[in-house]
Fold this sequence. Notes:
There is one protein chain. The protein is of the alpha/beta class. The protein has 18 helices and 14 strands. The longest helix has 17 residues, at 60-76.
Amino acid sequence: MLRIFYTxxxxxIQPFILLMMWKRGYKQPAYRRRLFERYGxxxxxxxxxxxxxxxxxASVGEVIAATPLIxxxxxxxxxxxITVTTVTPTGSARVRAAFxxxxxHFYLPYDLPDAVLRFLNFVNPKLIIVIExxxxxxxxxxxxxxxxxxxxxxxxLSPRSAKRYGWIKFSxxxxxxxxxxIMAQDAVSAERYLALGFHPExxxxxxxxxxxxxxxxxxxNKVNSTKQELAFAERPVWIAGSTHEGEEKLLLDAHKQLLSxxxxxLLILVPRHPERFGAVEELxxxxxxxxxxxxxxxxxxxxxxxxxxxxxxxxxxxxxxxKIAFVGGSLVKHGGHNPLEPIAFELPVISGVHxxxxxxxxxxxxYVKGVVEVKSxxxxxxxxxxxxxxxxxxxxxISQAGFDVLQENQGALKxxxxxxxxxxxx
Length: 426
């Protein structure tokens, strides 16, 4: 009954969703493109080979988590067709940057019965793997009706989501038990799924795939070619990655302070969302700092003080250009982003205190002193960067401690592949 109400409401709000997408398209035109895919229409698009798998990774963070898993599946099952679906254009760009044409890629349609059915008939998969937390009632229902296995990999359930699902536990339990397997990324998420009524025999705590991040030779080559393209001199470089509104002004003011002591210091500033590139550039203009944009595709000048990362799909290679990394979403109450990306390059990481999206990872980093946490304060940020620039030995200890955490917690990928094998070989 609840699914029927949910479905009716989903149809009713579609005009408002279309209006929202159209408005978003003013700042980010990619939201206006490929709208038909969001309703399960794939005119003139190549149909994937049947009996393959779908990996759904909603946006950039999920694509990053899914990347080692997809690569492992490609290595062990080279003839298995793989379709990767996302929800956001940034996720789409990340898929293309990571896999090119080696996978099919589409947007996952809205959770409407007819759209989902068209999508499933178009792809015709034998298995759907959803990364982290994407529970769509109509998708799960249609997949179950068709006898397609549905698995949640690297499953995470936040306290907020667990509480909300708890209000409708009977309906959620009915939906969850149509799922073939849940591979939880930590014990806390596993317990939350069990509390909602999921069968314990179909749940395994496999650990977090994000720890199985690897810097490939291909990525290192991209980093080196980017250094040549930008004509990097031997300058100290720090990066602020995945920043949100309210953070850039603090970071630019901190950078101004740092330039008085480190006049050749370069900041690479990378906003999380492409629709904010313009607003961040306006802040740069007001700051009177000399900057160039990554999309300018031109070399740095000796007086360039900021590089604005206004591209999609390049976050990892931009991290590879730096010596110190600040990870955004943490000075404001967004919950932070994945610190393991810069840590994989053995960079010391600076973070704000709002890191509730990654409690397990940050707890491990704090325990070994593998992260520097700062308040939402210009002076505090500047002091942290200055300290790391001035103390090479301490900087190395912090980066090594973080890198050790990354390496010691790897193994989730191997466990995921072992559990997925019966479904992939079927």
